[in-house]
Amino acid sequence: MLQLYFFPMACSLASRIALMEAGIEARYHLVDIWTKKVLEDDSDFWTVSAKGAVPVLVLDNGERLTESAAVLQYIADLKPELGLAPRPGERDRYRLQEWLSFVGSEIHKAFLFPTFWYSDDAAKAAARERIGKSVSIAAEHLAGRPYLVGERFTVADGYLTWSLLLLGRGGVDIAQWPSLVNYVARMQERPQLKAAVDIEMRLRKTVRV
Q1: 184 CB burial (10 A radius; 0-12, 13-18, 19+)
Q2: Superfamily in which the 2-83 domain is placed by CATH
Q3: Residues 58-61: contacts with CB within 8 Å, 24+ apart?
Q4: What is the pLDDT of residue 117?
Q5: Contact 65, 3 (CB under 8 A)
Q6: Are 128 and 168 spatial neighbours (Cβ–Cβ below 8 Å)?
């Protein structure tokens, strides 16, 4: 059985969404990313991953996979018939990778990471100054289409949805981008995505944030 190390409402939520959308059972290990402890047994998370960051997906053979873009594609490829990622070699597979990279670098690392991790006000202000342009790119892309890639939900949609849910907590109101408001509303109508978010919102109360 796959195992996912996660922190509530961190980027690892996208991996939970992917697992639940794929109908894949997994064991979930809650990590306190501030103390680097696995809460179920108080073990050292550094022994799980030298990066000290979530997500960490433990494969059936015991290998460990990190970084959201890699983890999400791995999960999607376990159930190729569901279309959570275009098949390798298809042109849209590169569009998927394009959006995973964009969300990861331009929204997650460029804004959410400094906003929630840094104490430096100047760094937070600089991130906030840049984020509008990046979010506008996603908003324009989604103005005339239901999903980021092709005509169906992919793991990139789960990753973007997570980032948009976190933007408000970082002081960015997506109401200024109607296409994103509509997009998030549509995504939250998906039963498995909504269930994943609800689970992590409840768990969020059990750890320091």
Answers
A1: middle
A2: Glutaredoxin (3.40.30.10)
A3: 58/2, 58/3, 58/4, 58/5, 59/2, 60/1, 60/2
A4: 60
A5: no
A6: no
Per residue in 81-107, pLDDT (tens digit) is 999 999 999 999 999 999 999 999 888
Q: Tens digit of pLDDT for each residue in 17-35? A: 999 999 999 999 999 988 9
User: What secondary structure letter does DSSP report for 120?
Assistant: -
Contacts of residues 199-204 at CB distance under 8 Å and 24 or more positions apart, as own/partner, are 199/16, 200/6, 200/8, 200/9, 200/13, 200/16, 201/8, 201/9, 203/8, 203/30, 204/8, 204/9
* Measured distance CA(138)–CA(125) in Å, rounded: 21
Question: CATH 3.40.30.10 region(s) of the chain?
Answer: 2-83
For residue 155, the Cα-to-chain-centroid distance in whole angstroms is: 9
List the CATH code of the domain at 91-192: 1.20.1050.10
Share of the chain above pLDDT 70, in %: 90
pLDDT of 113-130, one tens digit each? 656 665 566 666 666 667
Work out the average pLDDT over 142-158: 96
Residue 40 carries which side chain, given as an amino acid letter? E
What's the burial of 77, exposed, middle or buried (CB within 10 Å: 0-12/13-18/19+)? middle
